[in-house]
Amino acid sequence: MTLALTVLTTTDSAEKAEELARGAVEARLAACAQISGPVTSVYHWKNAIETSQEWQVFFKTTEACYDTLEAHIARVHDYDTPEILALPVVRGSAAYLAWLAEETSAG
Amino acid sequence: MTLALTVLTTTDSAEKAEELARGAVEARLAACAQISGPVTSVYHWKNAIETSQEWQVFFKTTEACYDTLEAHIARVHDYDTPEILALPVVRGSAAYLAWLAEETSAG
Amino acid sequence: MTLALTVLTTTDSAEKAEELARGAVEARLAACAQISGPVTSVYHWKNAIETSQEWQVFFKTTEACYDTLEAHIARVHDYDTPEILALPVVRGSAAYLAWLAEETSAG
């Protein structure tokens, strides 16, 4: 059973990552977010392998907030096709999950 | 099918993160743990958006060990409501999963 | 429902992590990969608790590519029993998931 979601996106500066995180938390679309980086991203671009520096944002939210959070990230993000992926939380501390639900109840 | 769990917590220093990691591995409640940080955490606090530095701990364990690991983290952690969330592992190398089960069999 | 997979491995240098990431992306076994590190790994070794520096690689791929990606990592990796674990993606941006499937369609 999915109790909550960890939603991931990546962007190309610490400032943009913080803007994405703050905006989602401010709008109550996530209870909190963690920014990790720089990380090295490796991907295909025009038939070559590119590497670039990126920052990862991990949002903690509920299933109920997911669609609105995805729309928020897509709107604020400046990539054409940003990574937006959600991983399920299947166990968790009852107190933390209650806090997470409370923080996002207005989202 | 859930084959194993990745359990996450965050705390506010590298030393506390290592204490949480070592304690769980020592008690055989996790096969291993990885500490990542500092990361930037963004959350609501008293009607404002706060950011702070934290360290993430990713424990690798089994479903059988989860409840005892959660109780261990809650006891050692000095936050009132620490993040304790488990994400499911749905595929994995058979050799690594066997090692993970063996390492935690006394947990 | 699993829409995609995030596959994790860890290794002991940034160079080996990049080799693992580039090889998988080049072979179309992952749409992209992110390398994070150094992280501090904590584990049992010969009845003591060891800590060491490692780098984490997060591959983004499909369920269809998983077995071939696992075999690739096991072949390139120089650990006897490397960590290879897959976490499910249960929600995601339709555009990003389509890109992920397209990038790995030859894998």
Automatic annotation (TrEMBL), chains A, B, C:
Annotated SUPFAM superfamilies: GlnB-like
Domain of life where this protein originates: Bacteria
Pfam families for the chain: CutA1
Family: Belongs to the CutA family.
Protein's name according to its UniProt entry: Divalent-cation tolerance protein CutA
Lineage of the species this protein comes from: Bacteria, Bacillati, Actinomycetota, Actinomycetes, Kitasatosporales
